[in-house]
Amino acid sequence: MLFTLSDTRSTWMVYTAFLAVVALLFFADLADLPIDTHDEDYFLDSADTLAAPAAFFAPDKRMPGRPALELVFLLQYMAWGTSGTAYHLCGGLFHLIAALALARAGRALGLDLELALLTGLLFLINVGHFNAIHWISAQCYALVLICGSIALCAYVRDRPLPVYALLLIGVLFHISAAAFLPFFLYLSWQRGDRPIFRRYLPLALLLATVVLSLKIGYPQAPQASIVADGFDPWGLLRNQLVCWSRLISTAHWLVQPLHRFPVWEWILGATGLGIFAVLQWRRHFTLSPWLAWVFVHLLPIAVLSPAYIQTVPSGPSRYLYLASAGSAGILAWLLRHLAARSPLRPRLVFALLLLLLSYSSYTGLSKATAIAYYASGRHFLASHQLDEGIVQLKRAIATAPETINLEDAYVRLVFADIYNTEAVKPTLTQAQALFPDNALFTIAPLVLACMAPDLLQESEPLRLLHKFKAQGTGNADWTRQLFENVGDGFYDREAWDQAVQAYRYALEFDLTRIPTRVQLGWVLVMTNRFTEAIEEYETVLQNGPHSEAHFNIALAHMLRGDNKAARSTYAAGIQKYGRATAEELGVPQRLQRLIGLDIRAAEARDIIRSFWPERVEPQ
């Protein structure tokens, strides 16, 4: 040992306070992180449970399949509602407790106090598993590690009941907790302790039963969609190599954008796996348990789809959380070993190495927040919360552009920002300078030029757009989507004529796009161009039944004074699509609004009296 430490309560209290200070320094920005995919789903599930407790067990709720985690989120929801800041800080607290529990587990494994404490510290500031701390929905991983570490302490003391209870609770947080059992059995085998080995075999059957019950009982759980289809040996190997590589290449630093998987990563992963095999064969007393820990906790990743791992902005980051506890133990031994072998003063060398590692971790974790912003921006855009999505993507670019998929971020920004034709121009200028070969950043300015008020439809920008359409299969889709988004922006600002023009341009690049034509028809209704609106909606119906188009035709007939056509069209719509569908579309509500505005009030009241007599209000 480099330092003289006593394994006393006072030592552990000082260590706890020290880790708390480190956590505050390294994770202060948790309070400012936004929510991400599934976070709101957990909030809504918690609200549903408070309203109707039976909803907690519903197999078709938004986020089923992890009952213990759902209970933790329910308790948090009762405490602080939908405050993302509070959830993030609570996740940071769980991570701190997990680091402390890991240090205790290290002592239970037989490590000297110095190594055990260093292991907990290095795990706390590890960069590679940042996503498990930055993402609210990933709190399960810290909770599993807490359960597993305490179970390990109980296992070493030969107390089966807490081991059974803690691993069962852990599996209800996340099924990866089951990987602790083969690790415990490995320890029994290594020590030749066969009675304990046999004592815990029934737990394997129990855990398998629980996992299978969760899979069968909650078939719609979102996590089921990321499992690989069938047995894929090459995909399994790729997952393992990537994860072994990331345990090293992102341990306390970020050297490249995590969405990239260059060749050297596969080589590094294979090298790490090979070193594991050699060291296990030599049975190095200090390293063997940690190596086995890493190995068993990377096994569950084998069932994930390789394509999914390579499309997640953070890569396999959160899936490394449990395995990185083992790699922290290995790094702790290596750090002390290098310092002890140094010809200089070992304690000074150790302190310098630890400071360098800590600084690198601090920098890496700061950069990793950019990935959290980027992932959150994608989530908000997918949820049609454009303003918040734009804010988060711009934060990601401003924080650490080198860590994210920068080109994809600008692509998403342009599509979202073009709703405001003036605000998007600085974004486009930046994107064109960084990615001049990306066709989208050439097409978007032409789309904006087409909307200039002094240009006719047969303008030069439009001609160039049609030329781009012929050059690439995706260019037409991009152009259509950009015009649609421009049209939606004009619609929101009630610039009706520009909206109509933008939607018509969009249809030039995809005549079969039904939602665009339906929206165009509605703008025409709003601007009293009823005949044109009916023509657009009839074009929609030529491609098949469409309830919204049908009822909007009826409304257009009524607004232009053709009461007979309106009544017959409403009647046909009710017969074909049903009253429930009409109500979901807001058909009677629109008629009631017309009555309130005294626009074709008599005709609207007559239609309501015929098809929704219960909604008739006394005059």
Structural overview:
With 619 residues, this protein is an all-alpha fold. It is 71% helix and 0% strand.
Annotate the secondary structure layout:
Layout: H1 9-26, H2 39-51, H3 67-80, H4 84-108, H5 113-124, H6 131-134, H7 139-156, H8 160-173, H9 180-190, H10 194-199, H11 201-217, H12 233-249, H13 263-282, H14 288-298, H15 306-309, H16 321-341, H17 346-382, H18 386-399, H19 406-417, H20 424-434, H21 440-450, H22 460-471, H23 473-492, H24 496-508, H25 514-526, H26 530-542, H27 547-559, H28 563-577, H29 579-584, H30 587-597, H31 601-611
Uncertain regions spanning at least 5 consecutive residues:
none
Question: How many helix segments?
Answer: 31
Helix % is: over 70%
- Provide the residue-averaged pLDDT: 91
Calculate Rg over CA atoms. Answer: 30 Å
Report on the biggest sheet. Answer: none
Structural class: mainly alpha
Q: How far apart lie the N and C ends?
A: 91 Å
Number of strands: 0
| SS strand fraction | under 5%
Name the overall outline.
elongated
List keywords for this structure.
mainly alpha, single chain, 619 residues
In short:
By secondary structure, the protein is an all-alpha fold. It has helices at 9-26, 39-51, 67-80, 84-108, 113-124, 131-134, 139-156, 160-173, 180-190, 194-199, 201-217, 233-249, 263-282, 288-298, 306-309, 321-341, 346-382, 386-399, 406-417, 424-434, 440-450, 460-471, 473-492, 496-508, 514-526, 530-542, 547-559, 563-577, 579-584, 587-597, 601-611.
